[in-house]
Amino acid sequence: MQDLTKRAVILSAMPVTPALSAYLQPGDTVVACDAGYRNAAVLGIQPDLIVGDFDSHEKPETDRETIVLPVKKDDTDTVFAAKEAMRRGFDEFLLVGVSGGRLDHTLVNVYLLVMLREQGKRALLVDDYSEMELVGAEKVEIPERFPFYSLVNITGTARGITETGCKFPLDNGEIHCGYQYGTSNEVLPGQTAVVSVKEGLLLLIKDFPEV
Question: Is pLDDT at 101 greater than 80 in this prediction?
Fold first, then answer.
């Protein structure tokens, strides 16, 4: 894990399909978390680092760098992996196999996007159904290939929300955690939707087409 200009891929235990290998890039540094080691084979890659308490997968017999964690700890294996990658200097993250299954783990992993952003990092979470990222003051484009997208407030109140190029546009809107109305918007045919937030953060979920 020497080239810090590359991206850290955090690979956790939720089942993935080979289709997600399309998100991998040459030079990615892969950190497998416990049973996430199984997903490396599904994606056709080898982890550069393995971390975990190995309560859901036996410790692999491998020459790859491995960090064995205690079972009793505050951080999940996935959270530890993200912190370790930050400690090693990575600024860009791809989170794979971190959503689905147990809701508590999924929610904690979604909030990893917040933790990483607060540390000035860029992060994208992908599974077989959607892409997830945070939107703030910077404009984020949503291409027409996504049939639906949603904006969900997970950090308090978001103000000054603007959406253009979509079926339900918004100008200087506000969404707070107690009332979520940003679900299932659609990109207009032949256009690209653009979303930005003046104050606060929103979770942008872009749904893949059903196959």
Answer: yes
**Alpha carbon distances (Å) from 148 to 66, 97, 166, 183, 208:** 40, 22, 10, 9, 8
Q: For tokens 């912190």, what's the residue?
A: 83
Cα 63 to Cα 81, 105, 172: the distances in Å are 18, 29, 54
What does the alpha-carbon distance between residue 65 and residue 135 come to, in Å, rounded to a whole number? 34
User: Which stretches within 32-179 are classed as H helix?
Assistant: 36-43, 77-87, 103-110, 112-118
Tell me the residue type at 180: Q
pTM, entire model: 0.90
Instruction: Report helix angle 103-110 to 77-87, nearest 10.
Output: 20
One-letter amino acid at 194 equals V
Q: Distance between CA 2 and CA 5 in Å, rounded?
A: 9
Cα dihedral 113, 118, 122, 124 in deg (nearest 10) = 10
Backbone dihedral region of 107: left (phi > 0), alpha (psi from -120 to 50 degrees) or beta? alpha
Q: How confident is the model at residue 1 (pLDDT cuts 50, 70, 90)?
A: very low
Tokens 């917040």, located at residue: 114
Cα–Cα nearest to 48, from 23, 27, 21, 30: 30
The C-alpha atoms of residue 36 and residue 57 are separated, in whole angstroms, by 8
- Is 13's pLDDT higher than 50? yes
- Predicted confidence band at 2 (pLDDT cuts at 50, 70, 90)? very low
Length of the chain equals 211
User: What does the pLDDT read at residue 5?
Assistant: 54
